[in-house]
Structures are given as C-alpha cells and as structure tokens.
C-alpha cells in the first residue's frame, strides 16, 4: 500500500449541531471531528448507535437534513472544501466522485422503477453540458457490466426486475452497483450489511474489498461491529459521544486499545456469559428429552377466493430433541425455517403432520388434529418494539397471564408481578410505566417476564437480542443464562449471530431448507462440523 | 399569536371545534325547554320581517320566527347524526371484525358486500329507503346507518389484519387470551386513533346528508322544521329575506365545521404521540 | 394479467350485488307495491292493472331476472309518470349531470395538485398553515350550502351570474359550460380542500423515505427527485382518495343541481320518488350505482398500472 502525500479526504475540526426550534434545545451532534482517508484504503468508523457515525457520513456526502448546521470545520476532498461549494457542484460530485450506500436495502430503491431505470439515472444525472449524451445502449452495457461486477450471475434479469422481486442481499448489491457506476474515488458505506444474514454479509463484504482493490477506490466503512472492522479495514477511527476518541491502524487499535471506550467495546464483543464455576453440568444426551419433535412438517397456504390453495412447505420432516434444562441453539441462514419451527412449537402455527411429545407424553399429533395450545412453553420475540402492547402498562401486561388463566387471587397478582420485575432486573416502579417509556433492553426483560409468569418448562427465544445494542445484548444474555441456571428452564435459542450462540448454548442444531442437518454439543460442532452447510455458516 | 399555534395546534382545533359543536348542542337542548317564539305559528303580519329585537333572526314567508324554527330544526339533524353513526359503527364493528378475524371466504364475501353498499353515493340509498318505506325518522336512520357502516367495517377489518400478526397479539394468544378478549381488550385500543376521527367525521357527514335529504323534500317534512327544509324555503325568498338562508346555513356550518375541527384535533394529537 | 382478471371478477360480483340490492329494496316492503304506489284511494281495477303492468303476478326471482336481462339490453321498463322508456329518460338527463361531474373532477385535479405540491415544499411555514386553515374551513362547507351562499353573494349581490339560468348544449356549447361552471365550483371546493391536504401529506411522507435518499445520493437535482420519484410514488394513495372523491362528487351533484335548477338526473330522481314511480327510480339508482362501481374499477386499474407490486406478484 503506497501512501500518497495528500489524502483523498480530509476532515478538519468538523462541528455540527441542530439548532433549537420550538421546544427542542440546541443539540450538538459532532464535536471537532478530524480524520484523513488516503487513496485506495479502507477506513472504518466504529462506535455505538448514537455516537455520530451516520451524521458524519451524511455531512461528507452532503445529504444532511436542512435543519443541520455546520458550526465550524472543513471537509477537504481532493483539496477542495466541500462545505464551501455551491449546491450544484456538490451535487455533481455525488454519484460521480463520491458514492454512498446505506443500511436499509429493503426500502432504499424506488419500488416503481426497474433496477435498470434506477441505475440509468446516475448516468443521466451527470451529463456534461455541451457533450452529447451517450446512446442508451452504451449506458445499458455499462450498467450490465457493473451488475456483473457486483456479483450478479444474470445481470439482464436484474436489469429488468423491480425491487420487490429481489431479496435484501440482491437489492444491496444493486445499490452498490448504482453507487459505483461512475467509478467514484470514495465510497461511503453506512452499515451496509447489518440488515442481512451472515452468509450474504460475507459475500458482499468480500465483493467490496475486491472492488476497492480493483478500482483503487477508498472506502469509508461505518459499523458498530468490531469483528467486521477487523476483517475489512486498514485503519480505524473509534467514535464515542460525538467525538473520535482513537484513530490508528486497525491491528494496533484492536490489540492495544489506547482509549478506555475502545477497550470496553472490545470487551463487549467478546461475550463471556458463561460463568464456568457456577455452571450446572449440562444434561447428558441420553436423558429423557423434555420436548421431542418427531417428523414435523409445516407450511403456509395462500389461496384465492375459492380453493386453489398453494401449500408452501417450510418445515420438512423435522425431528429434534430438547433436553430438560438445556440451552439449545438453533442456527441457519435466513429463510431456512427457524422462525416457522418456533411458531409451530408454541402453537401459533398448525403443523401439517408429525407429533410432539412432552416428557414422552404425546401432546399433539398434527396428522390428526391441527391446533393446540401449551402454556408451559413461552416465547420471546426479536422485535422489542412490537412485543409489548403500547396501550397497556407493564403491570397490566404482566398480570394478564395470571388473570386469563385464573391463577392466584386478585390481591396476590400484583405482588407476583413485582417479584417477577425484580427477577428480571427491573425496578418495581416500572409497574406503572408504559412500554414507550422503556428502552429496547428493558422491553426484552419485560417480554421474558411475561413468559416466565406461567412457569414454563421451555422458553423459545427467536432472535431475542438481535435488535439490541452490543452492550445491552450481553446484559440480556446474562439474564437468560441466570434464569436457566436458577430455575432449570430450558431454552430454544434461535439466532443468526454465531458469537451469541457460542456464548450461551449447551448444544446447537443446524437447519437448512426446512430440515435439521446437524446437532451436537456446542464445542464439537464449532470445532469440527460434519455437515458442509454447517461449515459454510461457521466459516 | 402565531407562536401559540405552533406549540399546540391540536389543542386549538379541539377547543374551537368543541366550542362550535357546543353552541349547536346547547341550542338544541334548550329547544326542549324554551323557544323564543312559536315555530309553527303563522302570522301574516310579520311575513318576511327582517331581524328585530322581537325576532332576532327575523321571520319567514309565513311569519314564523326563524330563530325558533332553527332551534327546533337542529333537533332532527343532531338526533339523526348521532344515532345513525351509532348504528353504522356497531354494524361496521361486527362485519369488520368477522371479516378481519376469520379471513378467507368470509372476508371476501363480506368485503364484496361492503363494496357494493359503498357504491351507492351517500344520499342515494337513503333516498331509496325513503321512497320505499316512506318518509320518517326510522327510514332515514336505517338508510344512513347501512350506507355509512361499510367504511367503519373497513377500518376494523384493515386494522385487525394489520395488528393480528403483531408480536404482542401473538404473545397474548400464547398466554391463553381467548378471541373475544383478544379483540376487544388487546386489539381494539390500537384502532382508536383511527376510529375516533372517523366517528366524529361520520357524525358531520350524516348531518350533511340529512340536511341534503330534507332540502330535497325527502327528509323531515314541512311544516316541521329541519335545517335542510328551512334552506329550501329560504331559497325562494333569498332576495327579499336573506336571513332565512343565512341563519340555518350558519348553524349547519357551525356543527359540521366544529366536528371536523375536533376530528382534526384528535388526529393531530395522536400523531404527536398521544399514546 | 392475473390481477386484472381478479378485479374484473370482483367488479362483476359487485355490480350483481348492487343490482340485487336495488331490486330488493323496492320489493321487500310489506304489502302490495301496487297499492303503495297508487295510494289508499285507488280502486281495485286500477291496482290490478298496475300489477299486470309491473309484472307483479310473477314470482320474485323471475321478475329480477327479467329486469336484469332487460337492463343488459338497455331496457329498464317504462316510467309510470312519463309513459316513456326509463332508459330514454335517463339518457336525456344524464349528459348534463355527467358534465358537471367531469368539470368538478377536472377542477379538483387542476387546483389541488399545484396547491398540494407547493404546500408540501415548506411545511410549517406561514403559507402552509394558511392553506391548512382555509382548507379546513372550505372542507366543512356542504356543497349545497355553498351553492346557496354563492347564489346569494355572487349571483344576486355581485351579479356575476344569473341564478337559475341554464343553457342547453343543443343551443350553445359555451353557454352550456358557463351555466355549469358555478355548480361545478360549488361541488368542487370542499373536494379541492381535502385533496390538497391529502396530496401535501402524501408528498411529505414520501419525501422521508429511504429511496429518496438513494436518489439524492445519485446526484439528482431536487426537481428531478420530485417529479421522477416523489410524485409517482405518492400517486398510489392519491388515486385511492380520488376514486372516493369522485363517488362523493356524484352525491354532492344530486343536491346542487336542485339549488341551481339544472335539469339533470337529480330532478328526474326526485320527481320519480315523489310520484312513487318505482321503475324509474330503480333505473336511475341502478345507473348511478353502477357508474360508481366503474369509477372504483378504473381507479384500481390505474393503481396496477402505476405500481408494479400490484401488477406482478
């Protein structure tokens, strides 16, 4: 890597704020930010949500909301201060010299336009006045070439497709193609793969690195995930609370962090949840399984007005044991049927065939009857913002399971709820709060409490920490672990995040395309996977 | 003054709206106890008399006191609009809930039915009912109730379909909440922010429809006053006695405008985060 | 293609139900329709004659099918009052009503869109708040009250037009349009108010969406973003609202026609109701309801043309 004398991008003392308006006070979001990005390097900015990473990216690109005000500082791109440029010139740079991709691929494309049409706009928007526009056919060829470059095997089909016909990963690739179409010198990537599953994530990140090397293009890579940074970035800046606290070569930072905040980020990323001294021995594989699932098949049917039901089979002949008191992990790429299994197990979705046994007693035979309900199995969802009824207080929500099942006398219910709040680590005052007043992590605690109210023997947790900040994730995982240790409740822990699974589970099962392809002790599977699918996931 | 608006626009709407509706309701209620003049007494001496201390709103072509007639005329408008919306709401709730909850063929059939009813422009179906059953409060309320029900059914149906897969509803099912309680206690509160404005607007629209009907001679019959037929009478004398048109219009507008303001205030309040 | 077929099927079902409702409404009253029509003083002979004429001796289902079959052919029976085929009477008056409807819709679209776009450009500023308050006020004015007040102030006080004057299209087309102008305004004003609000809100919502950010990151100018991305995407909910508005316009016209003394469908309808002319009333109601259904259908087709997500599964 040759270091040229003048950096491509140079940010100097950038300070940004949102001025007061109406009831809101003035809010400084960036404070004296300074860093350089050199030609051809991949530069990362890492920090927690709210540290100012995205705003930095928007400020460089020139996409700040109208209300934002730059109070001081410069952004030099190839020697020119972008902040002092007239709007039109700034716009000309965008798309041509500076490209940008964002976090939400699912909503970042105009649903009414084909990919081809959308991408063609990039070319037409940067037409030089006086120079005749290149013929449409040439533009189309350029677009098809770029689509192939980002990894599409059938660029022609993608060119003609609408966004809703493509998956999240495909949409993100298309967006990358659009950002790179005019071969910019700088690509800003703001959490580009956070919303995608791990397999797609790796593929796209590899592609980005290859393109950066191939085009000699700099990348400003923004994320909250230190592991990704390690893979991708040459140099790294750590942001915390609107400032850059540390900025150096990636390896140096990760191995000898200079700033306490960096150190705590690293700690959080390591996830040591299990306290081996207090650990109960995990149940032996020969023990009588708590739940035994036998040849379960399930699917969704979508039919029209009369008949013509199309059965889409998602689970195909699944057999799985859950041992009493264990934490069983369930992993697999998106769409493999993990959530469907969770839904069937908890009675929300009927299966089409197969049986489920609890303690070797049959409690559902889907081949005969379709529905069942088993309050002894609890469920925790991924999305903390929709898992609690926003119109009810926490206390009311936690009493509801007792109320509906006629448990305890009315007067005793409140006490039970207050006890439960303490058990999940919440102050008793939250009894009267509404969900909107709680943070994501606190809401997940309440969700857990709701399941625990009915003293279940198994709790199915479907991506319970995936929507939370890294530091909060660790706290919630620890809570799950403690509950498992204390009360012996088994967990079926579904996640796409391998380090989370690794930190908490006793055994793990791997799913692919509606089938279980491998199960085993966590250490065994991760060290020496027997199945190729498993190997690909673990990488 | 502008600063005040920026701070609490929704409160302004609610206050002004309630004031307007309040005036109308107050007058309507007073009409049960006291009327300044006799609304039915014809008097050739005061024919088309302009407003005076004795007759604040003037007199109509038969010499009757306009103020009294307006106050009396408010009654059918208010009654029909309130009861009609109640009927439409209950009908809509039942149809919409069944449709949203059961889905499938039931949903398709019920929504087809709802769409067919919505195909009749508001007043039209009421006109049909009146033509067939005869003129009278019952046929008007029935006609309106049926015509306005589908829009509430749609709100319930769409709302239920949107919310029934929300995690907190699934969670409620899991802990054992049965369907009636699930719908009414857990799910319906999520629909209030859509239903409340719709109900208020429905009252306003029904008042408009009723006055339109009476104007056409198909609603409340002369000599019984209703805002609509007062306007009809007034139209013929618009040059000689404009107060016959102005005052009934004023009160109709007050009622409808007030209701629209209230509904707008509710909608703004929820958008600002009233939950 | 699939979507189009599905919608056509639904359209036919709706029309079928509509006709059923219309038919049933007239014949499910207790008692004898013929007696109801002629009143209590009619002689038995008159009643019997009417029963034969209306075909009341045949069973209900037969009557319905005969009526429907006739409707397809364009024959809706004969009016009792005018002694003419119902369809001919309707055909004479319908063009006037439809012209008012067309003018109102045109006015609404031409005025509401620019107002809405402008208002969305500076939300919260003075102009926007002014439009908003004015919009609320105008929205609440029922068309026929507006029509009356217009007659009073514009027609008589300011003498801008002669109240109650109507020029037929057979005499002079400009005169025809002129005499329909004020009625159309009366009907259109509340619709303009609500459409403008809705258009403004739709645009503001679309502006915040992520794909607008992408378009800007591609370097597109604000105008291009507005016309290529924001407006087309706002169209989908706007089309829905407009179809509802179009059907409401029909309801508003019914009363406004009477205020301005325009010889349209409305007067025919009221006459038929007062005279208990069931065949004529039935025919008019059927026509108007089917027209509304067709408007909704057109809106749906427009939807699928604009939004590929609806067209292709």
In terms of structural class, how would the helical and strand content of chain A be classed?
alpha/beta
| Distance between the ends of chain B | 28 Å
Biggest sheet descriptor of chain A? 6 strands, mixed
- Evaluate the radius of gyration of chain A: 26 Å
What do the pLDDT scores of chain A average to?
84
* Structure summary, number of beta strands of chain A: 20
Strands side by side in the biggest sheet of chain A: 6-7-8-3-9-10
Q: What share of the residues of chain A lie within helices?
A: 25-40%
Quaternary class: heterotrimer
Compute the average pLDDT of chain B. Answer: 85
Write a short abstract of this structure.
Helix content of chain B is 72%, strand content 0%. Chain B is mostly helical and 275 residues long. Chain A binds chain B through residues 22-23, 305-306, 346-348, 373, 375, 378-379, 381, 383, 386-392, 400-401, 404-405, 434, 436, 447, 450, 453-454, and chain B through 6-7, 105, 108, 166-178, 181, 186, 189-190, 273, 275.
Can you tell me about this structure?
The complex is a heterotrimer of chains A (539), B (275) and C (313). With 539 residues, chain A is an alpha/beta fold. Chain A is built from 18 helices and 20 strands. About 1% of the residues of chain A have low confidence. Chain B is an all-alpha fold and 275 residues long. Chain B is elongated and about 75 Å long. The chains are: A alpha/beta (539), B mainly alpha (275), C mainly alpha (313).
């Amino acid at each position: 890597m040759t270091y040229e004398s003048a950096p491509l991008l140079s940010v100097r003392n950038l300070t940004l704020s949102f001025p007061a308006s109406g009831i809101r006070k003035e809010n400084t979001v960036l404070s004296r930010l300074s860093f350089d990005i050199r030609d051809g390097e991949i530069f990362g900015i890492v920090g927690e949500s709210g540290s100012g990473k995205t705003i930095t990216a928007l400020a460089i690109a020139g996409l700040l909301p109208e209300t934002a005000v730059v109070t001081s500082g410069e952004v030099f791109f190839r020697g020119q201060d972008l902040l002092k440029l007239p709007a039109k010139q700034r716009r000309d740079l965008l798309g041509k010299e500076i490209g940008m991709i964002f976090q939400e691929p699912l909503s970042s494309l105009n649903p009414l336009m084909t990919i081809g049409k959308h991408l063609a706009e990039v070319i037409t928007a940067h037409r030089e006045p006086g120079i005749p526009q290149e013929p449409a056919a040439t533009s189309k060829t350029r677009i098809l070439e770029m689509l192939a470059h980002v990894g599409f095997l059938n660029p022609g089909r993608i060119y003609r497709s609408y966004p809703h016909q493509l998956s999240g990963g495909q949409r993100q690739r298309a967006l990358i193609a659009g950002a790179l179409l005019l071969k910019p010198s700088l690509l800003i990537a703001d959490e580009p793969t956070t919303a995608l599953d791990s397999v797609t994530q790796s593929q796209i990140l590899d592609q980005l690195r290859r393109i950066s090397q191939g085009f000699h293009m700099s990348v400003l890579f923004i994320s909250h995930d230190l592991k990704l940074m390690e893979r991708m970035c040459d140099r790294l800046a750590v942001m915390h609370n609107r400032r850059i606290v540390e900025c150096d070569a990636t390896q140096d930072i990760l191995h000898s962090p200079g700033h306490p905040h960096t150190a705590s980020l690293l700690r959080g990323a390591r996830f040591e949840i299990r306290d081996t001294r207090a650990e109960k021995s995990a149940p032996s594989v020969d023990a009588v399984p708590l739940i035994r699932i036998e040849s379960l098949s399930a699917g969704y049917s979508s039919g029209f007005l009369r008949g013509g039901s199309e059965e889409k089979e998602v689970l195909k002949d699944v057999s799985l044991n859950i041992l009493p008191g264990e934490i069983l992990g369930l992993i697999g790429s998106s769409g493999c049927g993990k959530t469907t299994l969770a839904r069937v197990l908890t009675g929300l979705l009927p299966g089409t065939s197969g049986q489920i046994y609890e303690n070797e007693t049959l409690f559902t035979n889907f081949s005969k009857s379709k529905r069942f309900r088993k309050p002894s199995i609890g469920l925790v969802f991924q999305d903390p913002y929709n898992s609690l009824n926003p119109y009810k207080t926490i206390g009311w929500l936690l009493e509801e399971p007792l109320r509906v099942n006629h448990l305890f006398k009315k007067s005793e219910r409140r006490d039970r709820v207050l006890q439960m709040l303490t058990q999940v680590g919440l102050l008793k005052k939250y009894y009267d709060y509404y969900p909107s007043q709680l943070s994501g992590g606190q809401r997940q605690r309440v969700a857990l409490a709701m399941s625990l109210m009915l003293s279940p023997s198994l709790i199915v947790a479907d991506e319970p920490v995936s929507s939370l900040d890294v530091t909060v994730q660790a706290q919630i995982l620890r809570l799950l672990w403690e509950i498992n240790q204390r009360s012996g409740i088994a967990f079926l822990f579904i996640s796409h995040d391998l380090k989370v699974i690794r930190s908490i589970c006793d055994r793990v099962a791997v799913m692919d395309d509606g089938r279980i392809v491998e199960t085993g002790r966590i250490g065994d599977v991760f060290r020496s996977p027997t199945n190729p699918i498993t190997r690909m996931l673990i990488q | 003054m502008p600063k005040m608006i920026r701070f609490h626009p929704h409160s302004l709407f609610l206050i002004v709206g309630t004031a307007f509706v309040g005036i109308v309701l107050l007058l309507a209620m007073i009409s049960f106890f006291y009327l300044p003049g006799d609304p039915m007494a014809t008097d050739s001496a005061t024919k088309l008399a302009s407003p005076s201390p004795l007759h604040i709103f003037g007199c109509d072509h038969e010499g009757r006191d306009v103020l009294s007639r307006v106050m009396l005329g408010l009654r059918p408008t208010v009654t029909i609009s309130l009861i009609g919306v109640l009927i439409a709401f209950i009908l809509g709730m039942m149809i919409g809930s069944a449709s949203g909850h059961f889905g499938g063929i039931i949903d398709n059939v019920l929504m087809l039915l709802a769409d067919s009813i919505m195909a009749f422009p508001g007043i039209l179906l009421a006109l049909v009912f009146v033509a067939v059953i005869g003129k009278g409060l019952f046929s008007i309320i029935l006609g309106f109730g049926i015509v306005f029900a589908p829009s509430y059914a749609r709100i319930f149906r769409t709302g239920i379909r949107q919310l029934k897969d929300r995690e907190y509803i699934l969670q409620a099912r899991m802990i054992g909440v049965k369907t009636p309680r699930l719908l009414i206690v857990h799910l319906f509160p999520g629909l209030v922010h859509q239903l409340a404005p719709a109900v208020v607007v429905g009252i306003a629209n029904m008042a408009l429809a009723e006055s339109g009907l009476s104007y056409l001679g198909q609603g409340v019959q002369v000599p019984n006053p209703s805002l609509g037929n007062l306007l009809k009478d007034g139209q013929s004398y618009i040059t000689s006695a404009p107060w016959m048109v102005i005052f009934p219009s004023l009160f109709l507008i007050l009622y409808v405008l007030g209701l629209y303001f209230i509904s707008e205030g509710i909608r703004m309040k929820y958008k600002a985060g009233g939950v | 293609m699939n979507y189009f077929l599905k919608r056509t099927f639904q359209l036919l079902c709706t029309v079928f139900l509509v006709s059923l409702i219309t038919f049933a409404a007239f014949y499910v009253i207790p008692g004898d329709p013929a007696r109801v029509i002629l009143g209590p003083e009619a002689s038995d002979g008159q009643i019997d004659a009417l029963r034969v004429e209306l075909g009341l001796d045949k069973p209900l289902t037969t009557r319905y099918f005969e009526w429907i079959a006739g409707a397809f052919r364009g024959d809706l029976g004969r009016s009792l009052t005018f002694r003419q085929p119902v369809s001919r009477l309707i055909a004479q008056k319908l063009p006037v009503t439809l012209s008012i409807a067309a003018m109102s819709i045109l006015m609404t679209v031409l005025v509401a869109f620019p107002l809405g776009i402008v208002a969305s450009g500076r939300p919260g500023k003075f102009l926007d708040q002014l439009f908003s308050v004015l919009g609320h006020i105008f929205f609440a004015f029922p068309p026929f009250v507006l029509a009356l007040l217009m007659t009073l102030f514009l027609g008589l006080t300011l003498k801008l037009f002669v109240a109650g004057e109507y020029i037929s299209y057979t005499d002079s087309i400009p005169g025809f349009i002129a005499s329909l102008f004020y009625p159309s305004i009366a009907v259109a004003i509340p619709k303009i108010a609500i459409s403008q609000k809705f258009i403004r809100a739709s645009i503001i919502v679309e502006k915040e969406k992520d794909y607008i950010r992408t378009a800007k990151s591609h370097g597109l100018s604000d105008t291009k973003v507005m016309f290529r991305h924001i407006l087309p995407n706002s169209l989908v909910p706007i089309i829905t609202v407009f179809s509802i508005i179009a059907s409401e316009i029909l309801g508003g016209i019914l009363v406004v026609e009477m205020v301005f003394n325009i010889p349209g469908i409305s007067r025919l309808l009221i006459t038929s109701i007062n005279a208990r002319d069931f065949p004529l009333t039935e025919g008019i109601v059927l026509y108007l309801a089917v027209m509304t259904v067709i408007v909704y259908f057109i809106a749906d087709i427009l939807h699928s043309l604009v939004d590929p997500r609806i067209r292709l599964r």
